[in-house]
Each structure stands twice: as structure tokens, then as C-alpha cells.
Amino acid sequence: GAGVSRPGVVAAKCGAEVPLSHREELPQCLRNCRRSCLMNGLPHVPVIGLTWGRVSPELLSLPPVDIILGSDVFFDPKDFEDILTTVYFLLEKNPRAQFWTTYQVRSADWSIEALLCKWKLKNIHVPLHSFSADKEHLAGSPLPGRHTIEMMIISLARSDGT
Q1: What is any one of the record's Gene Ontology cellular component terms (predicted)?
Q2: CATH assignment of 64-161?
């Protein structure tokens, strides 16, 4: 779910080896990711068509990962389980990896807590103030402002649930 690919582009600019992915059935989004890489001097960054919840040859052939970045991927509750299914698959394949993601609380009815338990994943909340991201109008954006934004690191839970 690279979207406009800003987190991945920043990671690549900082020296990380980054494959970007977006939904395979949205070729316009894949083109936008490629264009963003080119505009940022990153022609070597692979852009891969992957769809949350779908096992594909592209998903199976991903190289080992340390960190999976997801910026606002928990947007539509109908996608939450597909996202966590894919994350679980990648974490099982890379047991020391972590899924770093942000989440804007849009409704008290939308939660991933039960799905984390179902998929044997644990969640550590990262306070926004710990990296000075709790200020209103951060970087010219109205977020976080009055919105509740959460950052979390998701990883495999141990057999005792921790």
C-alpha cells in the first residue's frame, strides 16, 4: 500500500533497500510509485504489484525484510484482516521483522485489536511525542491537529501471547 510512496522514498533516500508495493489491480497507482521514484532519483527501487490478503508469485518472491512500512493503510475496515493476513505471512517468513504503521482513529468501532489476537500478533504503541510528532500542523499538515493518530509496531507474538 505505498500510495504516493513517500515513506518508502524517504527510506530509500536514507539508504534502505526498499521495494514499494501497491495493489496490483491499480496500475495507475503503480505508475505513480514509479514516477515518484524517478522524480526522487531512485530509478533502481522496484515497484511491485501486491494486493493485501492475496498470495501471489510477487509476494512469495519478496526478499527478506526487516521492516514493513505502512502509512495509513488501516483506512477501510473491510481491508483490515487482509492487511494483517499479509503482514502475518511476511512476519512468519521473517520472524525478526516488524510492521511499522500509523493509524488515524476514525471510529471507535474500527479496531484491529481482535484481529491482532486472531493472527497471533502483538502491538506496541509508539507515543507521537517521543519523536516530536504530536504538534498541531506538523510539516504544514493539519494532522495530527484534533485527530487521534497512533503509531504502532506490530510483530509476531510469542507462544505465551506477549
Answers
A1: nucleus
A2: 3.40.50.150
Return the closest-CA partner of residue 119 out of 83, 151, 94, 66. 83
Distance, in Å, from the CA atom of 2 to the CA atom of 48, rounded to the nearest integer, reads 10
Written as nine digits, the cell of 11 is 527510506
C-alpha to C-alpha distances, 2 to 10, 24, 48, 60, nearest whole angstrom: 12, 11, 10, 18
What are the 10-residue block averages of pLDDT along the chain, 162 residues in total? Answer: 72 90 83 90 91 90 90 82 93 94 74 87 86 66 62 86 61
Q: How many CB atoms lie within 10 A of CB 153?
A: 14
Alpha helices in the chain (DSSP H): 6-13, 27-39, 57-60, 80-93, 113-118
Domain ranges of the chain: 1-51, 64-161
Q: Give 131-160 pLDDT, tens digit per residue.
A: 777 766 555 566 555 567 778 899 999 776
